[in-house]
Amino acid sequence: MTTIARGADIERLPDNMPQFILLHKQVAPYVAHIQLNRPDKLNALNLELMLEIKDALIELDADDSVRAIVISGNDKAFAAGADIKQMAGRTAVDMLKIDQFKTWDSIRKTRKPLIAAVSGYTFGGGCELAMICDIIIASETAQFGQPEINIGIMPGAGGTQRLTRIVGKSKAMEMVLGGQFMPAEEALRHGLVSRVVPIEHYLSEAVKLASLIAEKSPIAVQMAKESVLKSYEMSLQEALYFERKNFYMLFATEDQKEGMTAFVEKRKADFKGQ
Asked: C or N terminus of the chain, fewer CB within 10 Å?
């Protein structure tokens, strides 16, 4: 697979010059790409890498030239888990003071759609990061797992919660308690991923999907994303009320007028995010 973000095309964040990600803001019109870049560590998620992802997403979320974001690793690993060497000697008090999950909470609050392009090892924190994303496109070599139990701990960044909501209690228990892995095709059957494609196409397919989404009204996309996510957090009646409120609010946008006018006039809509 040819890496999209490389060489002179890579745009670095101005303030802190990330060491562990590559950022490309226009891999396609209105589409940005964040590539995890610790290949020698199978993209293990240390604190610094997670902070760089958080900072990049804050930057991209505020950038009107970006409407959808792809996050990938490399062919061998999306991310093989957390950086265990960084955590091994810490105490409970150390972990509380570090409060690493504040970074994860910030990533979760990204308003623009996130598409994970996943290949190879997607374990522990890597699986949790993929599940924070809104859509997962997997290569045929992808393997998912929450093997934290094998080192005497448990998932802490949503693995016991998001995985259970997606694949169900029994399968989640098998993966979390037994440390079992789930190959790509099984992940597709259980609804963990949107589609499985040959390894040479997983990143390009993710970018293609991001491009499709980026053609839509960015305001409508963000409100629709927000409404879908609320289905995990609210009762059906509360979520229906939230959906209805967002639906009505979109009729105050210029994009709604443009979209419906374009439909009547049988032309492609030109959405401005207004």
From this structure: C
Residue 91 is predicted with a pLDDT of: 79
Q: Please write the tens of the pLDDT for every residue from 121-173.
A: 999 999 999 999 999 999 999 999 999 999 999 999 999 999 999 999 999 99
Euclidean distance between CA atoms 93 and 102, whole angstroms: 16
Sheet holding 143-145, edge to edge: 77-79, 121-123, 143-145, 181-183
Nearest to 162 by CA among 178, 174, 146, 147: 146
Contact call for residues 273 and 64 (beta carbons, < 8 A) = yes
Please give the backbone phi and psi of residue 243, each rounded to the nearest 5 degrees, phi first. -60, -45
CB 36 within 8 A of CB 72: yes
Q: Residues with Cβ < 8 Å from 87, sequence gap 6 or more?
A: 95
**Per-domain boundaries in the chain:** 7-214, 218-264
Give the C-alpha separation, 177 to 163, whole Å.
Answer: 13
Active site residues per annotation: 82, 125, 128, 148
Q: What's the Rg (C-alpha) of the chain?
A: 19
Going from the C-alpha of 28 to that of each of 24, 70, 98, 209, 250, the distances in angstroms are 10, 11, 37, 11, 26
Q: Which residues of 124-144 are buried (b: 16+ CB within 10 A; e: fewer)?
A: bbbbbbbbbbbbbbbbebbbb
- Residues 220-248 have pLDDT tens digits of 999 999 999 999 889 999 999 999 999 99
Query: Is the model's pLDDT at 98 over the cut of 80?
Result: no
Q: Which of 156, 74, 111 is nearest to 246 (CA)?
A: 111
Domain 7-214 has CATH 3.40.50.1360: no
Does the structural domain 218-264 have CATH classification 1.10.12.10? Answer: yes
Label residue 15 by pLDDT band (50, 70, 90). Answer: low
Tell me: pLDDT of 182 over 70: yes
